Amino acid sequence: MGTDKKLVIGLFGFGVVGEGLYRVLHQTPSLKAEIRKVCIKHPGKKRNAPLELFTTEKNDLLFDTDINVIVEVIDDADAAFDIVQTAFKNGKAVVSASKKMIAEHLTEILQLQKETGLPFLCEAAACASIPVIRNLEEYYDNDLLHGIKAIVNGSTNFILTKMFEDKLDYSEALLLAQQLGFAESNPALDVEGYDAVNKWTFLLTHAYGIIPKKEDLLFTGIQNILLTDANVAREKNYDIKLVAQAQKLKNGKVAAFVLPQFVTHDDHLSFVKNEYNGVVIESGFADKQFFYGKGAGSFPTASAVLSDISALRYDYHYEYKKLYYHTPGELSHDFFVKAYVSFNQLADVPKEDFEWIEEWHGGQERSYFVGVIHFEKLVKDHWWKQHGVSLILTPDSIIENIEIRNLKKRSLELAGIV
What we know:
Layout: E1 7-12, H1 16-26, E2 33-39, E3 54-55, H2 59-62, E4 69-72, H3 77-89, E5 93-96, H4 99-116, E6 120-121, H5 124-127, H6 132-138, E7 145-151, H7 154-165, H8 170-179, H9 188-191, H10 194-208, E8 218-219, H11 227-235, E9 238-248, E10 254-264, E11 276-283, E12 287-294, H12 298-312, H13 321-324, E13 336-343, E14 354-361, E15 367-374, H14 375-380, E16 389-399, H15 403-414
Parallel strand pairs: 1-2, 1-4, 2-3, 4-5, 5-6, 8-10
Antiparallel strand pairs: 7-9, 7-11, 9-10, 11-12, 13-15, 13-16, 14-15
C-alpha cells in the first residue's frame, strides 16, 4: 500500500476488541487510518460511537471500493471465513483476531493469499499483546528453533493462579473468573483446551511450517485438575500451567501438544500469573527468549490489531518461510512422556501401558503415580480425559530414548533391588 496511502477500514464486530480498536485509532492520528464503517449483529445495542458508523449489512463494507482493509474481530468462525474470502476477492487486505476461524481454514487462507497477493495478518489471534507471530516469522530460522513453550489462554491461567495462590478449588476459581469476565458463562472453549489448541495450530505453521488440524494435536484443558493436584504440586515446589509445547526431536520431527504441566519455580512460565500469557522460545545459539504480556482484554488485543494495520502501510506480508522456503516440519508421536496421574479408582487407569512407574502414592482422598508412557498410547486412548482422572506432564517431560533407562532398570531387577 505504501506509507503515504490512507488506510480505510471496514470493521466487523464492536465488542471488547472492536471498541478498543476504535478508541486506540482515535489516539494514534499519525497512522493515517480511519474506520469507515462497522458491521454489527444487534443494531439496538447502545454503543460509544456515532450511530451513522454502524450497519448490519456486510456488503456495505465488503463491496465499498474506498475501503481497502477489512478487520474482523467476531466470534463466529464460519461467518468470519466468509468475510475473509469475500474481502480477498474484492482486493482488500485482511486483519483478523479469530483464532478458531484461522485454525479451521488456514489452508484455504494460504491459497487465497497466493492467488491474490494480498496480506492476511493475525497477531491478535494468538497471544493478544505479545508479538509472537511476527517474531517467529522474522527472527527464528527453522533449523535453529529447538522448541517453544507457551501459556496462550488467560482464562485457564487465571483459574490455576487462584487455585495455587488463594487455595480455591477448581469450581470456586472458575466462578471467580466468570464474575471478573475472564471466562464465559459457558467456559468449555477455554477450560477444556479448545481455545489454546486453536492458537497452537497456526503458531506451529509460523514456527515449523506445519499445518496441523486440531485433531492432529493431542490436547486437553484443566477441567479435571483438583485442589489435591495443586497441593501435590506445591509439595514438590511446582506450579501447574496449561502449556502449549512444541519441541524438535533428534530425528528432525516435531513433538507438539497442549496439556497441563508441572513447571518449576525457576521456569519462565512460572512467573506468568492470572490472565497473562507467556512464550518461551529456545533456539540454537540465542538460548531462550521470554515474551510476556496480557493475553486478553480490550486494549491489549486492540494493540495487536493496530500493529497489524500499521504494518500494512509497508506492504507487510507473512512470508511463511518455514513452509515455503524450508522443508516443512513433520509432527511425530514417536516419543515418551513422563506424567503425573491422579485418580479416584485404579481401574480407570491402564497402568500396564506405562513403561515404568517411579512414584506411587495411595491415599484416602485420591491416589496418584508418576510414570513414563509412549505418547502414541495417549493419542489412541482417552482414558486420561475422563472425569475422575487428572494427567499432568512433569517438567522436561519429553523422553526420546528409553533404552538406556530400561537397561538400568533391568540391571536393578537382576540385582534383586526392584
